[in-house]
Amino acid sequence: MDAILIAGGIPAPDEPLYEYTQGLPKAMVDVAGKAMIQWVLDALGEAQKVENIILIGLSEDNTLKCAKPLHYVENKGSMLANIVAGIYKVLELNPQAEYVISVSSDIPAITGEMVDWLIDSAMQTRHDIYYGIVTREVMEARYPGANRTFTKLADMHVCGADMHIAHKSMVTDPEHLAMWDELIGKRKSPLKQAASIGFTTLFLLLTGKLSLDGAIERITKRLKITGRAIQWDYAEPAMDVDKPHQLELLRADMESRVNA
C-alpha cells in the first residue's frame, strides 16, 4: 500500500507553535535531533507493508531521507485538497491501487510496526474508510498531561489517531468531497462534526447516549459510505503536536528513545 504524508502546515505568528517554527513548516521543527517529519519517514520506511510515499506540502529542497521511494506534491492549500492530490498521485504511480494510508507529519513517535499493524488490521475487511481511535485510558497511561481533546461517547472517551486508510473512491467520487471538506474543517470540534451529521446525532452526543457503534452507523449512513473504527492499543498515532507543551513532551519522550 502507498502512503500519503501530509506536511503543509506553517504556524502563523499568532499561533502557539510560531516561537518554535519562526515561519518554517511545523513538520521541520527539531525533535530529538531530527526534523519531526524525519521520524515519520523513518517509520514509513521501516514498514514492510508500505511501498511508495507521497510527501505533500514540502519542497524537494531539503535534507530528508527515506528508505522507500519518495515523491513530492506541492501544497494545495487545504487538508482535503492535499489528500485528494496525494491519492491521485498514488493512482498515477499505480493505477490498480485501491487503498491509501494517510499519515500526519506531526506524530513522530510512531514506528514501522504500528504502520504495518494498521494496514493488516484494516485489510481484514473491505470498507470505504478506516478511522483510527485511541481511548482516554490508553492515551493518558502513555502520555499523562498531553491534554488531548476527547469525544465523550456512551461507552468510552476517545480521540482520533492521525493515521487512516481510505478507498480511492473517497476522492474520485465527487459526491463525497463537499461533506469531507466540512467534516475535516471541523475536525478539532467533535460537537461541530456531530452537528454536521444531524441534530439527532448532536443530541445523543450531548446527552451521553451516543455509542461508538451508533456513531459509526449514523456517520456512514449520512455520508453514504461504509466505515470501520480501528481501536489502537498504542497511543503514539494520536500523540500529535498542536501546542508547545505537546512538542516538549514528545521531545523528552523521543530523547529517551534515542538514549535507551
Topology of helices and strands:
Blueprint: E1 2-6, H1 18-21, E2 30-31, E3 34-35, H2 36-46, E4 53-56, E5 70-73, H3 79-93, E6 99-104, H4 112-122, E7 129-135, H5 136-142, E8 151-152, E9 157-167, H6 169-172, H7 174-185, H8 190-197, H9 199-206, H10 212-223, E10 227-231, H11 244-259
Parallel strand pairs: 1-4, 1-6, 4-5, 7-10
Antiparallel strand pairs: 2-3, 6-9, 7-9, 8-9
Helix pairs in contact: 2-4, 8-9
| Helix/strand/pairing category | alpha/beta
The CATH architecture category equals Alpha-Beta Complex
CATH class: Alpha Beta
Number of domains: 1
Strand content: 15-25%
Write down the overall geometry. globular
CATH fold description: Spore Coat Polysaccharide Biosynthesis Protein SpsA, Chain A
Radius of gyration: 18 Å
Uncertain ranges: 197-207
Describe the largest sheet.
Answer: 8 strands, mixed
Order of helices and strands: EHEEHEEHEHEHEEHHHHHEH
Alpha-carbon distance between the two ends: 31 Å
Query: What is the name of the CATH superfamily?
Result: Spore Coat Polysaccharide Biosynthesis Protein SpsA, Chain A
Task: Tell me roughly what share of residues is in helical segments.
Answer: 40-55%
Number of strands: 10
Instruction: Report the total helices.
Output: 11
Mean pLDDT: 85
